[in-house]
Amino acid sequence: AYVLLSPPFQRCLVVPVDPSRTAELTALIQRLDVEATIEMELLVQVDQALTHVSSGRANHNERLEFLGDAVLRLAATEYLDRYHPKLTVGSSSSLRAQLVSDRWLAELGEHIGLEPLLNLGPKALGDAAARATIRADATEALIGALYLGTGNLKTVHRWLTPHWHHTSAEVQTTPHRFHGKTTLQEWSQGKGLGLPMYVTEQRSSTHGDSQRFRSRVQVGDQLQAEAMGRSRKEAEQNAAAAAVQKLIGADAEGNTELH
Fold it and tell me: Which of 45, 93, 194, 207 could be joined to 149 by an S-S link, Cβ 3.0–4.6 Å?
């Protein structure tokens, strides 16, 4: 059964997609391995999901991205409840943040070969720094399109669950990559060094630039590291992860202890 949606998500008159575009979109849906019936209505939704506002087209992907954000969070919550039921609420929230992050979405979009299928305007085509952000937004819109085109979360779960399994395993085996600030703070306080100090500066005004911010973290006079990021938060997290990686290397040589 289809979920009833209020405007602007109500189903509307289906306008056929160009035949050459249809073949590309059909191949994309097949790559997702969601076992969805590929009908024109679904193809129209997917085509819209891959159409950036810069294209100048009336049916761009902002609304589907908005819907996809809600669908993604619900599906991720259901995933955690099913596959990680013993996690505390705090741990579940932390893991979910990784499963729905912009970085994760951008990487997923790259994995499924989304970028060549995007409808972009001249400005977006010339903005290489924003490419990851555009890819993440389109991936989120694609999630919304699949939900809207099939009427349930089954297709979303079928597509995303294998990728979530992989990410969850990475978080559990290398937590410092995802929770570097927490790990570094626990180490520094355990050593009686107080809180890590971060100095973060903006180096670019371009939204989505992976080197927009640079952050340097200092722990007493014992440890220093720096890294870049698209936001202050990301740059600080990356700097902390780099510092923890140094600690892991030192620990392997027997110079320190990381608990």
Answer: 45
Burial class (CB in 10 A: 0-12, 13-18, 19+), 7: exposed
Cα–Cα distance between 104 and 254 in angstroms, integer? 34
Catalytic one among 24, 69, 78, 110?
Answer: 69
Q: Is 140 an active-site residue? A: yes
Q: Check if the beta carbon of residue 237 is closer than 8 Å to that of residue 245.
A: no
For residue 62 the two structure tokens come to: 């902002």
Active-site residue identified among 102, 137, 140, 209? 140
Alpha helices in 84-198 (DSSP H): 89-99, 102-111, 122-125, 131-150, 154-173, 180-190
Answer yes or no: are the C-beta atoms of 253 and 234 closer than 8 Å. no
User: What is the reported pTM?
Assistant: 0.71
**Is 220:194 a contact under the CB 8 Å cutoff?**
yes
Kindly state the helix (H) or strand (E) to which residue 247 belongs, with its residue range: helix 232-252
Q: What is the CA radius of gyration of the chain?
A: 21
Query: Does the pLDDT at position 259 exceed 80?
Result: no
| Residue appearing with tokens 């180490």 | 187
Over the stretch 153-194, which tens digit does the pLDDT of each residue have?
999 999 999 999 999 998 877 666 667 788 888 888 888 888
Q: How far apart are CA 247 and CA 158, in angstroms?
A: 39
